[in-house]
Predict the structure.
Amino acid sequence: MDLRELDGSTIALVFIGDVDGNPDALHMNLASAQSDGVELILDFGVGPFDAQPDMLERLSPVPPDIRNSLQDAEWFIPFEVAPLPPGTDLAMLVVDRLRRSV
């Protein structure tokens, strides 16, 4: 895909995971996409974030029947969220502007 096609579009980051016993809990963040064809920048209104290659692999167009549910986003990136394993050292998490990862 030519990343320039995404320039100016709205992308929904959809986080799905088990929250308080509900395995289908959902949280969504919307971002404006900017691209020069080389990299994709997502702007959440708090500063830009460079989309990582693994995110681009999951990027999909929003099906028309759920577009309203995703606040008219044209594209979405799904994420599955799981609880941290017991004993995880939180000091070892790497923080970037979007996520924490081990």
In short: Residues 42 and 49 are 5 Å apart (CA to CA). Residues 96-102 have pLDDT under 50 and may be disordered.
